[in-house]
Write a structure and sequence with these properties.
Elements (H helix, E strand, L loop, with lengths): L12 H4 L16 E9 L10 E5 L14 E5 L5 E7 L4 E2 L5 E2 L2 E7 L7 E7 L3 H6 L1 H4 L4 H5 L2 E5 L2 E3 L2 E2 L12
Parallel strand pairs: 1-10, 1-11, 8-9
Antiparallel strand pairs: 1-4, 2-3, 2-7, 5-6, 7-8, 9-10
Length: 174
């Protein structure tokens, strides 16, 4: 039996994981389109130029069905920058009967990782929803929560992802 991708040394993302739609969950110029942007950093604080960021999310109505695809993929450039054009998601139901704050799930693939890591992107202009979100509420402190909150900027939101180190992003076991 041959080796699997998690057993080999990469990066191999450009070869093995092409995605025709690229970073476009919605078309450029779509009503309500926003850019989700950021950079991916290693444990030394250096940008990772060959990482891959995937996004998945509910539509603006908070649903995962219908015509909204909700999936995007962006490689990082020489400065570790990624960008995905999408729509801001709506709140989704929580297991306890309440709601989860609007968020986007992110999966990061990068050299040095044997398996991908998974996190979430929340929006800084959803303070009330974020305060009530069951996932954010279960994180140990404000510093941990802050690693998941994207800052609003012209045309969208920014969230930098730190794979290790003092600014390490919170990742989830899946």
């Amino acid at each position: 039996m041959g080796t699997t991708p998690s057993q080999t040394v990469g990066p191999f993302f450009a070869i093995e994981l092409p995605y025709a739609e690229g970073p476009y969950v919605v078309s450029d110029g779509a009503d309500g389109a926003i850019w989700l942007r950021g950079r991916v950093f290693d444990g030394a604080g250096d940008p990772i130029p060959d990482a891959l960021v995937e996004s998945w999310q509910a539509g603006p109505d908070g649903r995962f069905d219908g015509e909204f695809r909700g999936f995007g993929r962006s490689g990082t450039d020489a400065e570790g920058a990624w960008a995905i054009l999408t729509l801001k998601p709506g709140a989704v139901p929580a297991a306890d009967g309440g709601e989860q704050a609007p968020h986007v799930g992110l999966t990061i693939f990068a050299r040095g990782l044997l398996h991908q890591v998974v996190t979430r992107l929340y929006f800084d202009d959803e303070e009330d929803a974020n305060a009530a979100d069951p996932v954010l509420s279960n994180l140990p402190d404000d510093d941990s929560r802050a690693t998941l909150i994207a800052a609003g900027e012209d045309g969208g939101y920014r969230l930098d992802i730190h794979l290790q180190g003092p600014d390490e992003t919170v990742f989830f076991a899946v």
